[in-house]
Amino acid sequence: MLLLLLPSLLLLLGSGPGSGEASRTLHVHRRGILELAGTVGCVGPRTPIAYMKYGCFCGLGGHGQPRDAIDWCCHRHDCCYTRAEEAGCSPKTERYSWQCVNQSVLCGETPAPPCHPPRVFPGYPGIGR
């Protein structure tokens, strides 16, 4: 039994952030606010820091009309977090499953408690390059 588990454990240990293009193609991650950087890395080459003061909604706070597709993505993210908090969830600290498939972030598919996707987070569009 242990011999059957060993390859799976090695795959999990070797497929963390920064382990190459293969992990960016199809890999299941867990994420709270600390893992948000991983989703940004999934969809484009820019670092999360590049978006800290981008447009009206990327980074802290948010106001006005989103300026472009990237800013709309940040706006959607903010709205999702607000909906989750209104539902009694803690999206900034709770972790949930997501996948990086062809540079697109897909939320978890398995049935889960009300605070888990797809009930609260409908999925995120890719961020432009």
TrEMBL record:
Gene Ontology cellular-component terms listed: extracellular region
EC number(s) on file: 3.1.1.4
Binding site for Ca(2+): F57, G59, G61, D78
Comment on bound cofactor: Binds 1 Ca(2+) ion per subunit.
Family annotation (InterPro entries): PLA2, PLA2-like_dom, PLA2_histidine, PLipase_A2_dom_sf
Matching SUPFAM superfamilies: Phospholipase A2, PLA2 (SSF48619)
Signal sequence, renumbered to the chain: 1-22
Domain called Phospholipase A2-like central: residue spans: 32-126
Catalytic reactions on record: a 1,2-diacyl-sn-glycero-3-phosphocholine + H2O = a 1-acyl-sn-glycero-3-phosphocholine + a fatty acid + H(+)
SMART domains to which the protein is assigned, alphabetical: PA2c
Cofactor(s) essential for the protein: Ca(2+)
Major localisation: secreted
Subcellular location, record wording: Secreted
GO molecular function list: calcium ion binding; calcium-dependent phospholipase A2 activity; phospholipid binding
One GO term of the biological process aspect: lipid catabolic process
Disulfide cysteine pairs (residue numbers): C58-C74
Keywords: Calcium, Disulfide bond, Hydrolase, Lipid metabolism, Metal-binding, Secreted, Signal
Family: Belongs to the phospholipase A2 family.
Name under which the protein is recorded: Phospholipase A2
Record organism: Nomascus leucogenys (Northern white-cheeked gibbon)
Gene that this sequence comes from: PLA2G10
